[in-house]
């Protein structure tokens, strides 16, 4: 049956920092917080609750990248709308499933894959390579931002349109791999520009599950964003403070203007990982401050939201900073244990 958050748990904070020695931290109490259940997950949640817990479906590996810049109203981030159900949320950061070719050899700038594997909490350095390359590939396909360059101090200029658009389309169709693209042009992947943020597993009851590594990056100098030709319905730079301030209204969903978004609040459109990272952006005074606060010394935190409540109601009213979801979600919500630090301050 659905699980309830404990009043407090503790989590050991140990790991190996990239470029540093072993790091050992004092344990922090885990603080449970409730979030709205996105509408596209309600049927799966109800089935899980009614029929009892079963073996969760296998999760596909994925990467997602929050890209940020400084704006007149604080830190801005690029959000996009994804039609249909998705483990990353209908309103989310660029991202998607990993490809097998993401681990192919290419020039590499930044921490070695073996070092990244310790930060990301995965045992296989080849899988770490796939997560980093997958993050860079998805970011490029969806936004035109390419974290690659001829050396460890430069990035390619204006790689989003013109002849580059053909490469983005070929990547999306899996007619070209990211390693092939950078190898042909004599570039290497600038993995040093990425900041690892956290590892999120889709809830166990979900019909489609991702094991997602979240990253963050600032827009490189000389690059801009654009939607891929023939794909994407909505994408925009949004001040994080504006999005967070309007979370209890339908202002973002109405601005997107799609049938699945109009009249819906933020919690119905996205997942806890996106909401929490938006909060961190809103708190930061600048892009530099935001990214420095995400610097990892040890492994990234790992989360699996749990189903909380019942379809008869009652759970949603307990949610912290999340409005009730009685209209369509019954009494279900998602419970996440937060350790403080990068994702939430205890």
Automatic annotation (TrEMBL):
Cofactor or coenzyme needed: Mn(2+); Mg(2+)
Sequence ranges of Low complexity compositional bias: 1-14, 313-324
Region named Disordered: 1-21, 302-346
Name of the protein in its database record: Nudix hydrolase domain-containing protein
Highest taxon of source: Bacteria
GO molecular function: hydrolase activity, acting on acid anhydrides, in phosphorus-containing anhydrides; metal ion binding
Coiled coil stretches, renumbered: none
Keywords attached to this entry: Hydrolase, Magnesium, Manganese, Metal-binding
Organism: Citricoccus muralis
């Amino acid at each position: 049956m659905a699980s309830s958050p404990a009043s407090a748990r503790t989590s050991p904070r140990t790991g190996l920092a990239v470029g540093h020695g072993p790091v050992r931290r004092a344990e922090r109490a885990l603080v449970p917080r409730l979030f709205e259940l996105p509408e596209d997950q309600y049927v799966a949640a109800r089935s899980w609750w009614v029929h009892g817990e079963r073996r969760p479906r296998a999760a596909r590996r994925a990467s997602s990248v929050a890209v940020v810049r400084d704006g007149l109203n604080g830190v801005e981030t690029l959000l996009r709308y994804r039609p249909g159900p998705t483990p990353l949320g209908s309103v989310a950061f660029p991202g998607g499933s990993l490809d097998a070719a993401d681990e192919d050899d290419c020039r590499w700038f930044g921490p070695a894959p073996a070092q990244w594997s310790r930060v990301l909490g995965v045992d296989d350095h080849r899988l770490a390579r796939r997560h980093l390359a997958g993050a860079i590939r998805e970011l490029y396909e969806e936004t035109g931002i390419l974290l690659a360059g001829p050396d460890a101090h430069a990035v390619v200029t204006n790689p989003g349109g013109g002849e580059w658009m053909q490469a983005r389309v070929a990547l999306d169709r899996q007619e070209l791999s990211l390693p092939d693209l950078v190898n042909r042009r004599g570039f290497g992947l600038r993995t040093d520009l990425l900041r690892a943020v956290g590892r999120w597993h889709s809830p166990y009851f979900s019909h489609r599950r991702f094991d997602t590594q979240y990253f963050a990056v600032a827009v490189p100098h000389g690059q801009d964003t654009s939607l891929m030709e023939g794909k994407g319905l909505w994408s925009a730079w949004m001040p994080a403070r504006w999005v967070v301030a309007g979370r209890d209204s339908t202002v973002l969903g109405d601005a997107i203007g799609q049938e699945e978004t109009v009249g819906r609040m933020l919690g119905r459109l996205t997942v806890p990982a996106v909401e929490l990272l938006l909060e961190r952006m809103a708190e930061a005074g600048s892009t530099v401050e935001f990214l420095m606060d995400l610097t990892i010394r040890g492994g990234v935190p790992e989360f699996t939201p749990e189903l909380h409540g019942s379809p008869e109601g009652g759970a949603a009213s307990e949610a912290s900073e999340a409005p009730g979801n009685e209209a369509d979600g019954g009494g279900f919500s998602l419970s996440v244990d937060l350790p403080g630090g990068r994702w939430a301050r205890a």
